[in-house]
Amino acid sequence: MAEKEKLTVELCMGSSCFARGNSTALGYLESFIEENGLSDRIELGGHLCIGECNNGPHITIGGKEYSGITDPDCIIDIIRKALEGEDA
Fold first, then answer.
1. CA distance 2 to 33
2. Which residues contact 45 (CB under 8 A, 6 or more apart)?
3. What is the mean pLDDT of residues 82-87?
4. By Cβ atoms counted within 10 A, which residue in 7, 37, 68, 87 is the most buried?
5. What is the DSSP letter of 80?
6. Which residues contact 56 (CB under 8 A, 6 or more apart)?
7. 21 C-beta neighbours (distance < 10 Å), count
8. Coil, strand or helix: which one is 47?
9. What is the pTM for the complete model shown?
10. Is 57 helix (H, G, I), strand (E, B) or coil?
11. Is the model's pLDDT at 16 over the cut of 90?
């Protein structure tokens, strides 16, 4: 059986998104991945500004873009659904 492809989670680390919540989300996600042993299933990354400053904080989960989510628990819920193969 083939190994599942990793779920890619990318946070915008531009100054606006970082200040609007992605600084908090980054630490929260790193802890979530470590505490749940998901480093083999989730690839966490960041990128510089992608031009969505007015809608930030911006995050991409499994290729799907999300903006304005400031509650890290909501991000975790989306990630859990994506790992289970559900549309968030």
1. 22
2. 8, 9, 10, 11
3. 81
4. 7
5. H
6. 12, 14, 16, 17, 20, 21, 22, 67, 68
7. 21
8. strand
9. 0.87
10. coil
11. yes
59, burial (CB in 10 Å: exposed 0-12, middle 13-18, buried 19+):
buried
Token pair for 53: 């400053």
86 confidence band (pLDDT: 50, 70, 90): low
Please give the Cα distance from 46 to 54 (Å, whole number): 18
Which one-letter DSSP state was computed for residue 86?
-
The answer to whether the beta carbons of residues 82 and 33 sit under 8 Å apart is: no
Among candidate residues 23, 31, 26, the one with its CA nearest the CA of residue 9: 26
45: β partners? 10
Alpha-carbon distance of 19 to 6, in angstroms, equals: 28
